[in-house]
Design a protein that fits this description.
The protein is α+β, with helices and mostly antiparallel strands. The protein contains 15 helices and 16 strands.
Length: 421
C-alpha cells in the first residue's frame, strides 16, 4: 500500500469543516478590509527565496524542497508566501498602479522540518500583504486585521507579541554588540547556536536551548535609531487607541531575514511547543531587493493547521458540513428513475442537500442507507406513487411518513426541514 509522504496530511470528511470555517471567514474579512486575492504558483526559482528569506536562515539552509526540473532549472516549492507575492507584484507591473495595494492569499507551503503536532512539511497559510505605506497606520491596520480574523474564527486565548527590529543600520550595530556579548560563552552554546553565531546571530535570541544566555543579552531596543523608534511608539499608541492588546517582546526576531521595524507573532496558549499561530512584520527593503523600486511593505501569515488545533483546543463551535438533508429512495422502471432524478434537481435548486440513490440497491437496502447516512428526510418513489402522482416523505427522526401530491412536494419538504431546525 502506498503511504503519504511524512509531514503531509489527507483532509476529508467533517475535518474539512474547520478549513471551510477558517477560509470562508478569512476571505470575507479580507474583502471587508480591502484586500483582494492573489494566487501565485506553488514553485518558484530557488534564487527568489535565497535572496528574500535569506541565505543563512534555517529555511534556506535546511528546509527547502529544492530540485532541478527537466530543463535543469533550480526550482523550490514555496516555503512561504511573501516572496512570491512580491515577485508577482513586481513582474506584473502592479507597482505602477498606485498605493496602497493590499493582497491576501491562501495555500500550501513546504518546509522540510521535523514533523510533530502543528508542524508539517506541507502546511497551509492564510496571509496578507500591504504595499506602499511607510506609516505606522499600516502596521496597525495589519495587526488589527489579524486580531479581528482570529476572533472571527472564534479564538480568544491568544497573545500578540510585538517588537521592532529597527532599520538595517541599527541592526548592524546591534549584531556587533551581540557578537561581543556571546563571544566568551561560545563554547557553552548548543551546536545550532554555534553556527548561528557565525551566520545569523539574531537567531541566538530565540533559541529554545540557550534561553539563559539570551536573557542577559543586549537589548535590540537600545540600538534602535530615532525614526524607527518613533514609528514603533506611534504604532503602539494607535494599537492602544483601538484597544488591541499586545505584549512587547524584545526577544522577538523572526526567522526570515527580510524584516525591519515592526515585527509581530501571535501565540496561542493551548498549543504547547508549536504555539505560533501567526507571524509577520514590515519589510521595507524587500521589493527593491527583488528588482523593483523602493516600496515600503508589510504583511502576515497564519498557519491554518495550527488555527484548526487552536479552534479544537478552545472548543469553538464550528458548523457541521451538511450534505444529506434528503435521501431519495426509488424503486421501479425508468419512469420512476427519471422522476426521482427530477425531484433531486428541483430540491437542489432550492438549496437543499440531496443524496439520490445511484447504486440501484434493493428498496430495504436504500432505506437502511438513508438512515446510515444521517438523512433528515427520506423521499420514497415507486411505481405505485408514480401512478398516483404522489411522493412519500419519511421523517427519519420520528419515523412519521407523509404523502404529498407531486406539485407540492418541494414546498412540503422545505417546510419540514425548516421545522426540524
Ligand atoms: P512564518 O512565521 O515563517 O512567516 O510563518 C507564518 C505561520 O505559518 C507560523 O506562525 C505558523 O503558524 C505557520 N507555519 C510555519 N511553518 C509551519 C510548519 N512547518 N507547519 C505548520 N505551520 C507552520 C512567514 O511565512 C511570513 N511569510 C509571514 C509574513 C507575511 N511576513 C510578512 N508577510
Amino acid at each position: 500500500m502506498y503511504q503519504k509522504i511524512k509531514g503531509t496530511e489527507d483532509l476529508f470528511g467533517q475535518e474539512m469543516k474547520y478549513w471551510y470555517w477558517i477560509e470562508e471567514r478569512g476571505r470575507k474579512l479580507s474583502l471587508l478590509y480591502g484586500f483582494t486575492e492573489i494566487r501565485t504558483p506553488i514553485f518558484e526559482e530557488t534564487k527568489l527565496f535565497v535572496r528574500s528569506v535569506g541565505q543563512d536562515t534555517d529555511i534556506v539552509q535546511k528546509e527547502m524542497y529544492t530540485f532541478d526540473d527537466k530543463g535543469g532549472r533550480s526550482i523550490t516549492l514555496r516555503p512561504e508566501g511573501t516572496a512570491p507575492v512580491v515577485r508577482a507584484f513586481v513582474e506584473n507591473g502592479l507597482i505602477a498602479s498606485g498605493f496602497p495595494q493590499k493582497y491576501f492569499y491562501v495555500g500550501p507551503m513546504f518546509r522540510y522540518e521535523r514533523p510533530q503536532s502543528g508542524r508539517q512539511r506541507q502546511f497551509h497559510q492564510f496571509g496578507a500583504e500591504i504595499f506602499g505605506s511607510p506609516s505606522p497606520l499600516a502596521d496597525v491596520e495589519m495587526i488589527a486585521f489579524v486580531d479581528r480574523f482570529l476572533r472571527e474564527i472564534g479564538l480568544v486565548d491568544f497573545e500578540i507579541h510585538i517588537n521592532t527590529l529597527g532599520d538595517p543600520e541599527d541592526r548592524l550595530n546591534y549584531k556587533e554588540a551581540l557578537k561581543k556579548y556571546y563571544a566568551p560563552h561560545l563554547e557553552h552554546l548548543c551546536d545550532d547556536c554555534k553556527v548561528r553565531y557565525e551566520k545569523n546571530i539574531l537567531r541566538l535570541l530565540d533559541c529554545k536551548v540557550d534561553v539563559e544566555y539570551a536573557k542577559g543579552a543586549p537589548k535590540l531596543v537600545d540600538y534602535i535609531g530615532e525614526n524607527a523608534k518613533k514609528h514603533y511608539e506611534e504604532s503602539k499608541k494607535f494599537l492602544d487607541g483601538l484597544g488591541i492588546k499586545y505584549v512587547e517582546d524584545p526577544r522577538l526576531v523572526r526567522g526570515l531575514d527580510y524584516y525591519n521595524r515592526t515585527v509581530f507573532e501571535v501565540h496561542h496558549h493551548k498549543l504547547g511547543a508549536m504555539s505560533a499561530i501567526a507571524g509577520g512584520g514590515r519589510y521595507d527593503n524587500l521589493i527593491k531587493e527583488i528588482g523593483g523600486k523602493e516600496v515600503p511593505a508589510l504583511g502576515f501569515a497564519a498557519g491554518i493547521e495550527r488555527l484548526v488545533l487552536a479552534i479544537k483546543a478552545e472548543n469553538v463551535h464550528v458548523d457541521d458540513i451538511v450534505t444529506n438533508e434528503v435521501y431519495i429512495a426509488h424503486f421501479g422502471g425508468d419512469d420512476v428513475k427519471v422522476e426521482a432524478m427530477k425531484l433531486a434537481q428541483q430540491l437542489r435548486r432550492e438549496g437543499i442537500a440531496v443524496n439520490l440513490e445511484i447504486m440501484e440497491r434493493s428498496f430495504s437496502a436504500q432505506l437502511k442507507n438513508a438512515s446510515r447516512t444521517g438523512a433528515k428526510l427520506c423521499v420514497i418513489i415507486g411505481e405505485n406513487e408514480l401512478e398516483k402522482d404522489i411522493v412519500l416523505v419519511k421523517n427519519m427522526e420520528t419515523g412519521e411518513q407523509f404523502e404529498f401530491e407531486k406539485n407540492f412536494v418541494v414546498s412540503g419538504i422545505k417546510d419540514m426541514i425548516e421545522d426540524m431546525k
